[in-house]
Specification:
The protein is an alpha/beta fold. It is built from twelve helices and 15 strands. α10 packs across α11.
Length: 425
C-alpha cells in the first residue's frame, strides 16, 4: 500500500539516496507548514522521518488533560453513501461506536465527497470510493491540507481489490472483510460484518427460548444464483421433524431480489426459529477470508436468538479455525466460539443437530451459552473499537504509517511525498 505513493508520485524506494533527496526537498520548500501533531521531528539523512512516541503526563497536567479529553468525545461519521443504501451498515456502526456514555456520534450523509470535519470517520463502500477521477483521494487531501485528523471505515471489500491507496494517510482503518495480509497492521482493525439495517432486535424485546419457538429452522435468501445453498437446503430438509414444529423457507433468485421479505417479516421469522443455517455466499479467489462469522445472516440470526449453523472452510482455508478464533476471540475476548459447525458439504448437519433434538436440556444449554457469548462479543467489540478509534483519532503524534509500513507520507504543495520512517527510540 505504501508502494502506491512510491509509484504514483516521485520517490523511488530503491534509490539508495532516496531518503537524503526527500529530506533536502522538504527542508528547502518554504511552503511546508506542518502542525505540532504532524511535525517532522529530527529530520536527518540518516534517521529519515522520526515518529515521536506519546510522552507520559506529568501529575500537575493530569487533571487539565483529562478535562480536555472529555471535550474530545464527539465522533463525526461522514457517510459517502446514501441513507437508504442497504450496504451502509449505519445501525451496526452506530451500535459499536456509541457506548451511551462519553461518546457522542454525529451522522452526516454526504455522498459527494465535500463535507469536512476534524476528528471525522469517513464511511464508504469499496465500489464507490475511487474511479478515474479518484474522488476519495482528492477528498482526503482536503483533510490533510487543513490538518484534520480522520479515520476510515472501508465496507464490503470482499474481493480484496478495493481502493486502499489512502490507507497510509488515515489515522486508522476499520474493515468488515478480512484478509491475513492485514493482521499485522496495527492501525487496521477488522470489525464484525454485523447485521443489516432493521435486522437488530428491538430494545426490550424478550428472546424466546427454544421451547417457545414455532419453527425448527428457517432460511430466507438467494438460492438460485448460489448453487451451494441448494445443497444446504437439501441437507436441512433431511432432518426429522422436531415436536411437530414446521420449517420456513423463502427462496430468492438473486441478491436484493424484489420478492424479498420486508425486514420486519424477516426479523419475526428468525425470532421464532430455533436454528438458522448460514451457508457460504460468494468466495472470491484471493478474496476475503471465508468464515461463517463473516456473513450478515449469522449475526442477524444471533440478534433474534436463532442458533446459526455455519460450515467448515477447511478446503478453502486450512487455517480457517485459527483465523476465525483470532478475529473473533483473540482480538476481543478469550473464549471458544460456541456456534454449530458442519462440513462444507453439509452432509453431517443431521448428525450435528441430533443430540440437541433428542435432549432438551442440551439444547437449552447451547442456546443460553450462545446468547451469552453473543452479548459479551458485542460488549467486547464496542470496548475494543472505542479504544482503537480514540487512541488514534485524538493522539498527538505523527502519521501512523511509520510503524505500519516503514514509510511516512507528507502532503506538500498538493503532492504526497514519501520517505522511509522508523519509530523514535
Amino acid at each position: 500500500m505504501a508502494r502506491y505513493f512510491v509509484r504514483q508520485f516521485f520517490l523511488d524506494q530503491y534509490d539508495p539516496h532516496a531518503v537524503e533527496k526527500l529530506t533536502q526537498e522538504l527542508l528547502q520548500r518554504s511552503s511546508v507548514l506542518l502542525p505540532p501533531h504532524r511535525s517532522l521531528s529530527s529530520i536527518s539523512a540518516t534517521n529519515g522521518c522520526v515518529v515521536p512516541r506519546d510522552q507520559p503526563l506529568t501529575k500537575e497536567k493530569d487533571k487539565d488533560k483529562e478535562k480536555e479529553k472529555e471535550k474530545k468525545r464527539r465522533l463525526t461519521l461522514i457517510y459517502q453513501m446514501n441513507f437508504t443504501d442497504s450496504n451502509n451498515h449505519r445501525e451496526f456502526l452506530y451500535e459499536i461506536l456509541s457506548d451511551g456514555g462519553d461518546i457522542v456520534v454525529e451522522e452526516v450523509w454526504d455522498g459527494t465527497f465535500s463535507v469536512l470535519a476534524d476528528h471525522a470517520i469517513i464511511v464508504y463502500h469499496t465500489e464507490s470510493c475511487e474511479n478515474t477521477n479518484m474522488p476519495l483521494l482528492t477528498y482526503l487531501q482536503s483533510f490533510d491540507r487543513l490538518h484534520f485528523a480522520y479515520g476510515v471505515v472501508h465496507l464490503h471489500d470482499e474481493r480484496i481489490d478495493g481502493c486502499r491507496s489512502h490507507y497510509p494517510m488515515s489515522r486508522f482503518v476499520l474493515r468488515n472483510n478480512y484478509h491475513p495480509s492485514f493482521f499485522d497492521r496495527q492501525h487496521i482493525l477488522e470489525i464484525p460484518i454485523g447485521y443489516s439495517n432493521g435486522a437488530a432486535r428491538k430494545i426490550n424485546k424478550r428472546l424466546l427460548p427454544p421451547r417457545d419457538r414455532r419453527y425448527l429452522w428457517s432460511f430466507m435468501g438467494d438460492v438460485a444464483s448460489k448453487p451451494d445453498r441448494k445443497n444446504t437446503l437439501k441437507r436441512m430438509h433431511e432432518i426429522e421433524m422436531y415436536e411437530n414444529r414446521s420449517i420456513f423457507v423463502h427462496e430468492l433468485h438473486h441478491w436484493n431480489d424484489g420478492q424479498k421479505m420486508s425486514v420486519e417479516e424477516y426479523r419475526e421469522i428468525l425470532s421464532r426459529s430455533i436454528f438458522a443455517p448460514s451457508p457460504i455466499g460468494t468466495v472470491y479467489e484471493n478474496g476475503n477470508l471465508p468464515n461463517g462469522l463473516g456473513a450478515m445472516r449469522t449475526w442477524e440470526s444471533l440478534e433474534q436468538g436463532a442458533l446459526p449453523i455455519i460450515q467448515s472452510f477447511e478446503t478453502l482455508d486450512p487455517l480457517w479455525r485459527e483465523h476465525t478464533d483470532w478475529l473473533y476471540v483473540g482480538r476481543y475476548q478469550k473464549e471458544t466460539i460456541p456456534l454449530l459447525v458442519v462440513r462444507d458439504d453439509w452432509a453431517n448437519v443431521k448428525e450435528i443437530l441430533k443430540p440437541y433434538l433428542e435432549n432438551k436440556e442440551m439444547l437449552d444449554e447451547l442456546w443460553s451459552r450462545t446468547m451469552e457469548w453473543y452479548k459479551r462479543t458485542k460488549m467486547f467489540t464496542r470496548k475494543a473499537v472505542k479504544k482503537f478509534v480514540l487512541d488514534r483519532l485524538y493522539v498527538s503524534r505523527q502519521w501512523w504509517t511509520a510503524n505500519e509500513f516503514g514509510f511516512c507520507t507528507v502532503l506538500v504543495d498538493n503532492q504526497y511525498l514519501t520517505m522511509k520512517c522508523k519509530p523514535e527510540e
